[in-house]
From TrEMBL:
Signal peptide, first to last residue: none
Enzyme Commission designation: 2.3.1.12
Domain of life: Bacteria
Span list, region Disordered: 90-121
Root EC class: transferase
Acidic residues bias spans: 96-121
Family matches, as NCBIfam families: PDHac_trf_mito (TIGR01349)
Organism this protein belongs to: Fodinibius sediminis
Name of this chain's protein: Acetyltransferase component of pyruvate dehydrogenase complex
Length: 414
């Protein structure tokens, strides 16, 4: 008996999957547990295995095709088995999804055509060849030609009519080419269409929902990073694992969150949950958007461990090897664009987090110390907060604690 291989639900937010690669061809024999395809979901590229043995009788989706959940991807059975009913069922399912849109488009086209062709004065007479005396000196033109000229900004007196008695008709407007001033040669370049990946679709949906459903507000502080600069230099001289400035910001944020649990919270309509664990998501830029791998129990880990995990997760993110569980359970998010030279920015909250911290670049700027202008190192941080959970004073207290920890690095160890 033929078996339908349907698009499985490979993540909790997945609505469709894109066939990234087929590992089999029609006619191949597969065993239960074999990986037959790789599917791009909204979070990662996942493997699809079969649970039945048999011959691949038909592949119904090509590489690059988006397949909705539950739709048939392939058919497995005995060689030579009749699968016409399954194919007809799969085809009708696709047709039903496309038919309403096609009918609507066709109806709209017919309606538009009728509106253009119908003349309430001439009715069934061909208005492009009809004659109407113009005793009042007006330029002879059909109603449709007048309308087209008005819409296109064409002066009728500049158009030569080809209809009876020099009447201007539709075709005259369509073929009219106004005199153009000489211009430099221009090279026309083709537009480039880029398929929207499952990841980009999910990013767009989730961030749109966050921006318009969560009442965002923003607070910014400037931090003296000279102490961190000096501390990092000393740490890296004795550490096997090189510590980045971002690792230190992550560690300091985790310590500050422990002191301000209201920032480490989520909104669930009828309740606010202050999370017991501090799990910080670190935004990683990839070609198709932004991924947010999570460092679990961040507050309980040292700088070396945070650095190791951050690099491993970032590498997996760039290679699209992150698993869904490695991007789930965050309670706070940090987005750092300092390495791109960005001084300051605001970030959209990563739901269901209450806040996200946007970190800018460390800049050498003139500062005043003891009445004198001296060189200093400053970094701006902006906290985006969900006003349903976090009030302005709460956010300010958290930022001040974080600022104090970075300006006194030993404080995060207390």
């Amino acid at each position: 008996m033929a078996i339908k291989v349907e698009m499985p639900k490979l993540s909790d937010t997945m609505e469709e999957g894109v066939i990234a690669k087929w590992n089999v061809e029609e006619g191949d024999y597969v065993e239960s547990g074999d990986i037959i395809a790789e599917v791009e979901t909204d979070k990662a590229t996942m493997e699809v295995e079969v649970f039945d043995s048999g011959t691949i009788l038909k592949i119904l989706a090509g590489e690059g095709d988006a397949v909705p959940l539950g739709q048939v991807m392939a058919v497995i059975g005995e060689e030579g088995e009749d699968i016409s009913e399954i194919l007809a069922e799969a085809e009708s399912g696709s047709a039903e999804a496309e038919e309403p849109a096609e009918k609507e488009e066709e109806a709209a086209g017919q309606e538009k055509e009728q509106e253009e062709d119908y003349d309430p004065v001439l009715e069934d007479v061909d208005k492009e060849t009809a004659t109407a005396p113009d005793s009042d000196g007006r330029i002879k033109a059909s109603p449709l030609a007048r309308k087209m000229a008005e819409e296109q900004g064409i002066t009728l007196s500049n158009v030569k009519g080809s209809g009876p008695q020099g009447r201007i008709v539709k075709s005259d407007i369509e073929s009219y080419e106004p005199a153009k001033a000489p211009s430099a040669a221009v090279v026309s370049r083709e537009d480039k269409e880029i398929r929207v990946s499952q990841m980009r679709k999910t990013i767009a949906r989730r961030l749109s929902e966050s921006k318009y459903n969560n009442p965002h507000y923003y607070e910014t502080v400037s931090v003296d990073m000279q102490p961190v600069w000096d501390a990092r230099k000393q740490i890296n001289e004795v550490s096997d694992t090189k510590i980045s400035f971002n690792d230190i910001v992550v560690k300091a944020s985790a310590a500050a969150l422990r002191k301000h649990p209201e920032i480490n919270s989520s909104w669930y309509e009828d309740k606010i949950v202050e999370h017991g664990d501090v799990n910080i998501a670190v935004a990683v830029a990839v070609d198709e958007g932004l991924l947010t791998p999570v460092i679990d129990n961040t507050d309980q880990k040292g700088l070396q461990q945070i650095g190791i995990e951050t690099r491993e997760l970032a590498e997996k993110a760039r290679n699209r090897k992150l698993q869904p569980e490695e991007m789930e359970g965050s309670t706070f998010t940090i987005s750092n664009l300092g390495m791109f030279g960005i001084d300051e920015f605001t970030a959209i909250i990563n739901p269901p987090n209450a806040c996200i911290l946007a970190v800018g670049a460390i800049k050498e700027v003139p500062v005043v110390e003891d009445g004198e202008v001296v060189p200093g190192k400053r970094m701006k941080m902006t906290l985006s907060s969900d006003h349903r959970i976090v009030d302005g004073a709460m956010a300010a207290k958290f930022l001040n604690t974080l600022k104090q920890m970075l300006e006194n690095p030993l404080g995060m160890l207390l």
